Write a sequence for this structure.
């Protein structure tokens, strides 16, 4: 049953993303703004797309009448917002073990193992990180009115390491903004084929969908979006190197494409390392070792680290032994 409407011009007590009914009165300084834009400023915990969805479902009304997202607000207009209960996601919760690095009511940080798909998709309807999170976080608030974790960024199936997931709309918006503004610092470790001539380098090359294989990405001089990758050789191992990689952008397969472009593909990469004889490795030797961001609620600067996985450590020991 909806909560009792609040007094004019006020927001609901507590978190305005929870189910409830609130009333908002347009002040003179807001007159002329789009309704969805003004409501986004009134309820910043909800994204504009979420507000637009509420409007489409007639859960936002003006003096009892239906409204449209683009209509202009006027001084004294009374707008009522009904936030319905979160819908259950059309996904199964599965009791899959998780390596949790940090968790609170706003976000959860996972050390994702290699081989785990992040989100259900064709060919991977179950056994994903999302399925595991739905089981691990039964009290999750949800994203966009649906009880599901907020996947802010992804790691490839065969890439291991640190991954942050939002638990509610507000956290999702805050963390997404940090990624967009490049305030999230991401450090990877990779074993690559050969030893780069330059021990440190910066790769600035556009990445676009391959014109030869739509499942692959490729460096392009005329298409795609700019991608920036910085690398530093941590250890030279003759036929291979351990490199530290920092990405300033987040393009699909960015590290794998850029390192292959300069002639040093990630070891075990069966997609971008085919032109050279691959090192014997069970998967692509790429690990998200460190992630730094501001907490979405109190804005503390936080750093999360994940130790090198066993398969990468074993490969490094084998290379150090000259095998």
């Amino acid at each position: 049953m909806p909560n009792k409407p609040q007094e004019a011009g006020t927001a609901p007590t507590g978190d305005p993303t929870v189910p409830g009914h609130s009333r908002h009165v347009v002040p003179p300084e807001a007159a002329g703004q789009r309704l969805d834009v003004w409501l986004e400023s009134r309820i910043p915990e909800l994204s504009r797309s979420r507000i637009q969805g509420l409007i489409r479902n007639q859960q936002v009304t003006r003096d009892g009448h239906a409204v449209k997202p683009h209509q202009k607000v006027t001084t004294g207009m009374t707008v009522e917002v009904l936030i319905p209960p979160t819908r259950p996601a059309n996904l199964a919760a599965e009791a899959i073990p998780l390596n949790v690095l940090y968790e609170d009511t706003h976000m959860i940080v996972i050390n994702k193992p290699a081989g785990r798909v992040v989100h259900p998709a064709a060919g991977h309807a179950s056994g994903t990180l999302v399925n595991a999170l739905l089981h691990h976080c039964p009290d999750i608030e949800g994203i966009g009115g649906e009880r599901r974790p907020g996947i802010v960024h992804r790691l490839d199936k065969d890439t291991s390491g640190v991954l942050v997931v939002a638990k509610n709309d507000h956290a999702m918006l805050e963390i997404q903004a940090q990624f967009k503004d490049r305030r999230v610092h991401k450090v990877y470790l990779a074993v690559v084929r050969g030893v780069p001539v330059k021990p440190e380098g910066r790769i600035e090359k556009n990445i676009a969908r391959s014109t030869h294989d739509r499942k692959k990405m490729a460096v392009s001089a005329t298409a795609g979006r700019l991608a920036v990758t910085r690398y530093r050789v941590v250890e030279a191992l003759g036929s291979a190197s351990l490199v530290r990689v920092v990405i300033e952008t987040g393009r699909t397969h960015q590290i794998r494409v850029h390192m292959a472009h300069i002639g040093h593909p990630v070891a075990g990469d069966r997609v971008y390392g085919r032109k050279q004889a691959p090192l014997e490795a069970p998967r692509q030797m790429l690990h998200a070792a460190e992630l730094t961001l501001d907490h979405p609620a109190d804005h503390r600067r936080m750093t999360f680290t994940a130790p090198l996985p066993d398969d990468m450590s074993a490969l490094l020991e084998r290379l150090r032994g000259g095998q």
